[in-house]
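Sequence in, structure out. Go.
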Amino acid sequence: MKIHVLQHSALNTLGSIEEYARTRNHPLESTRFYETKNPPAFDSFDLLIIMGGPMGIYDYEENPWLNDEKAFIKRAINAGNSILGICLGAQLLADVLGARVYDNRCREMGWFPIKAAVAGNKLEFLKGLPEDIVVFHWHSRTFDIPDGAMHLFRSEGCENQGFIYGNRVIALQFHPEVTDERIKSMIGRFGLAIGSGPFIQKKEEMLGQEMYLAGTKEFMFKLLDRFEEMTHP
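Output:
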């Protein structure tokens, strides 16, 4: 499975996605729209992964390249590509699909549980994935579920934690790709701005959570395996 990643910052590393590609011998390439205007051809990859980033999806003045990336994402959806959006990537997908993206009622930063939006996880795509899992969050915004999409996950702090569109486009507000090093990088860059709140953990609570990290990695690998089954039946 040929994987292509859209990155939005040099500090936003790929985490367990890179490990997955390496252990499964899948080619992995990336594009940074803030550095180039030469996106890949739609037939050059099997799975497009849209990563997170520190900017907002409407910050065009500071990041004019967002217009080009949104246009590319829309064409990728129309071309029938399989797509996974994470955090900012999920918000970009929601926006491109016509849904509203806005400030969440509170920020979520740290390890908090999500659960399946539909009891029993009736969606075929999610069979074998956990219905309840503790995952890592780092966001202040959320999105509405686009028309034609199905709600996947929710948390106490954020109702819309994910959706699936056309059985091949997945948007996840949380971060299933994190490693401890990735979390340290987030804290190092934004630590002073974390603040406090009911869904904001202290640094010590975020780091060294081996059980949560293992569960999240397993979730990520199973999800990517599901995409591989779709693209290489």
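Check: The mean pLDDT is 92. The domain at 3-231 is CATH 3.40.50.880 (Rossmann fold).
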